[in-house]
Design brief:
The protein is of the alpha/beta class. It is about 20% helix and about 30% strand. The chain has helices at about 45-50, 85-90, 160-175, 195-205; strands spanning about 5-10, 15-20, 25-30, 35, 60, 80, 100-105, 110, 115-120, 130-135, 140, 150, 180, 215, 220-230, 230-235. The strands form 4 sheets. The protein has a 5-stranded mixed β-sheet with strand order 1-2-3-4-5. The protein has a 5-stranded mixed β-sheet with strand order 8-9-10-11-13, with no helix packed on it. The chain has a 4-stranded mixed β-sheet with strand order 12-16-15-14.
Length: about 240
């Protein structure tokens, strides 16, 4: 198994990725504050990494509760997460000292010269959220928009909600709210046209027009992997 290393990637315009190869968290730096979007998967000295980028106060937001997005959470005193995913994090003993604040659609994080609005995007998990920066036309959707493969199997996943979410995000895209996607997995950033492919793939799975190949996962779990172009969904 390859060793996963943590590196920092500067995308410009105050956006930095804390990249762990299998997943990335984002640090968005404004004039007065910074926002850490997710906390990675593998243990690392994330506070030192942040200090090497900015000395501004940092607010932590979790796009959802999957473990590869909450690693290193114990390094912080508090974080924001949607109420629908709160219990999945709250019940983990390693995070018992972290104050978890509920967030909802419409909540805005004002970093000074930069505002990120919370969008509720369930499907991948019941409490998945995205952060939308309309002024800079950027969106940070966690796992929901990416080449993936997006996990749609197991507890809490809901493919009907996921399709509704993709259509919801396409509406924002078509209205000009964002033109670049900063996703947690795979290539980044992405052109938002990927949403159209994800919708086609999701509809194909739901109708039976697209059937994925059986794929073994951890333990005895066997799921199906469906692909369309570069996009994939495990279900």
């Amino acid at each position: 198994m390859r060793e996963l290393k943590t590196t920092t990637v500067a995308y410009g315009n105050g956006i930095f990725a804390i990249d762990q190869q299998m997943v990335r968290a984002f640090l968005v730096v404004g004039n007065g504050k910074a926002l850490l979007i997710d906390t990675g998967a593998i243990q690392t000295d994330i506070q030192s990494i942040i200090a090497g980028i900015t000395d501004k106060p940092v607010t932590v937001v979790l796009t959802h509760s999957d473990g590869d997005h909450t690693g290193n959470l114990q390094a912080f005193s508090e974080a924001f997460i949607h109420a629908n995913d709160l219990e999945n994090v709250k019940t983990r003993p390693e995070y018992k000292d972290v104050a978890l604040n509920e967030m909802k659609a419409g909540d805005v994080f004002d970093l000074g010269g930069r505002r990120l609005k919370t969008l509720f995007i369930p499907g991948h998990t019941p409490g998945s959220i995205a952060l939308l920066d309309e002024e800079n036309k950027q969106i940070f959707p966690g796992d929901t928009v990416s080449y993936g493969p997006v996990y749609m199997f197991g507890k809490g996943r809901n493919i009907n909600d996921y399709l509704d979410t993709l259509n919801y995000l396409r509406g924002f895209r078509d209205a000009g709210a964002f033109n670049s996607v900063y996703c947690a997995h795979g290539e980044c950033p992405l052109d938002p046209s990927i949403i159209d492919t994800q919708i086609e793939l999701t509809r194909g799975i739901m109708s039976g027009a697209i059937t994925g190949e059986e794929t073994p996962m951890r333990g005895d779990t066997v799921v199906r992997l469906a692909k369309l172009g570069k996009t994939g969904i495990l279900y």
